[in-house]
Known about the structure:
Elements: H1 3-7, H2 15-39, H3 43-46
Amino acid sequence: MSNETRNAWSWGFTLGAENWNGRLAMLGFVAALIVEALSGQGVLHFFGLL
C-alpha cells in the first residue's frame, strides 16, 4: 500500500482512517499532558468536571 493511500482522509474502517485516528489520539494525549503539567491538575479537574 502506498503512502498516499495511507495518508488519505477517508471515512469508515480503512487504513487511512485508522492512521488519522491514531495521529489525532496522540495529539489529544500530548495536549492532556501539557494541560496537566501547566495547571498542576488533571484534565477533568481543569475543566471542572470532578
